[in-house]
Design goal:
- With 384 residues, this protein is an alpha+beta fold.
- The chain has eleven helices and ten strands.
- Helix 4 crosses helix 7, helix 5 (83-103) runs antiparallel to helix 7 and helix 9 (315-340) runs antiparallel to helix 11.
- It is globular.
- The two termini are 35 Å apart.
């Protein structure tokens, strides 16, 4: 059921629930997960108990049945504490789970959504390849029909939950290369012969969010595992990314907010020349700019989420929110390190982690350049 309006009291309660969860179950372990790149699977099982693994999934499939506005509030609060965990929550909800929710048939929904929504299973989503990042139409992973099965060969890279994921939705070329109607989406379960994961990538930031490659070596997948009609996978993926970009914008907003609050506290506690450094105009003006840009990011994200809840097209609004909020996260986290001075370069105050995590937001689910391309294409339609 579409939600055209939002209960503000319920939204407040959802936000508070996410805030309390992040403080109790995420904050104490941030660096213990970050340093060794540990993906905390058990945390995500617990998130399932709170409804954070099936936020948008209707209750009939054991999900929380919440709106997009409530979804971004949860992402905001979790990402303010740890961007890595926020990223994994976004990838599980917006990509794998939402792809099945939006495009799968009823049998597929009833088979997979309850497991994903409760956190029993963790989901992955595969589009990007070594030779096709921003050029998502140039996929090389191929599926050839052999009787009732598709034989899939190829690989995917930069896949969140590639190793720990129990199921993946994967885009496979079933037609001509470069043809947007030559790609199909398949649901592939972990343990399927010929379906394996590579080694965990050693990353600059978002280190507790698992990233690796997926490999397909004569992987036989029954045709019943295809989502929708043959050749509709790429169109499905593009529609999904429109909404997914809103989630990355919310992730960016949370990281920016965390970096800002970290700097604001430090600026009022740290003294130089017998006064808090907040009293120096250079520092206070930095914080004023940070607060303003965070507020602007929040408005863009909320606007896009409202359009999504109303069933409106969000291509332009989602791209704008993602572009501005992600670039703001990078700028704010950079300034936070600067305000901390030498301590900002250490791992004792938190600023450096926000700095490392923020950069991914300008890359994942479409780089800033891709967002500008999408926005430009959309505003061109506005010319009379």
């Amino acid at each position: 059921m579409m939600k055209n309006s939002i209960d503000t009291e319920q939204l407040r309660m959802v936000r508070q629930s996410a805030r309390d969860f992040a403080q109790a179950h995420i904050k104490p372990h941030i660096m213990a997960w970050d340093e060794p790149q540990k993906f905390p699977v058990e945390l995500f099982k617990k998130m399932g108990e709170y409804g954070f693994m099936g936020i948008l999934v209707p209750e009939e499939y054991q999900g929380a049945g919440l709106s997009y506005q409530e979804y971004i509030a949860i992402l905001d609060e979790i990402s303010k504490v740890c961007g890595s965990i926020g990223l994994s929550v976004a990838a599980h909800n917006s990509l794998c789970t939402n792809h099945i929710l939006t495009f799968a048939n009823e049998e597929q929904k009833r088979k997979y959504l309850p497991k994903l929504a409760t956190g029993e299973w963790i989901g992955a989503w595969g589009l990007t390849e070594t030779g096709s990042g921003s050029d998502a139409g140039g996929l090389s992973t191929v599926g050839v029909l052999d009787g009732d099965h598709y034989v899939i060969n190829g690989n995917k890279t930069f896949i969140t939950h590639a190793i720990s994921g129990d199921v993946a939705v994967v885009m496979v070329r079933t037609g001509e290369k470069g043809d947007k109607h030559g790609v199909s989406a398949f649901i592939i379960e972990k343990g399927t012969p010929g379906f394996t994961a590579g080694q965990k990538m050693d990353k600059l930031g978002m280190r507790a969010s698992e990233t690796a490659s997926l490999f397909f070596d004569n992987c036989r997948v029954h045709k019943s595992q295809m989502i929708g009609d043959i050749g509709t996978g790429f169109v499905q993926a593009l529609k999904l990314l429109d909404g997914g970009r809103i989630s990355i914008a919310a992730l960016s907003l949370g990281i920016a907010r965390g970096a800002y609050e970290c700097a604001l506290r430090y600026a009022q506690e740290r003294e130089q020349f017998n006064k808090p450094i907040f009293e120096f105009q250079d520092v206070s003006f930095k914080l004023a700019d940070m607060a303003t840009e965070i507020e602007a990011s929040e408005l863009l994200v909320q606007h896009a989420a409202q359009l999504k809840d109303q069933g409106e097209k969000v291509t332009k609004a989602g791209a704008m929110a993602k572009l501005y909020a992600s670039e703001t996260a990078v700028k704010v986290s950079n300034e936070s390190v600067q305000i901390h001075g030498g301590y900002g370069f250490t791992k004792d105050f938190g600023a450096e982690k926000y700095f490392r995590d923020a950069k991914l937001c300008t890359i994942g689910e479409g780089t800033s350049a891709i967002q500008k391309m999408v926005i430009a294409r959309e505003i061109k339609k506005d010319v009379l």
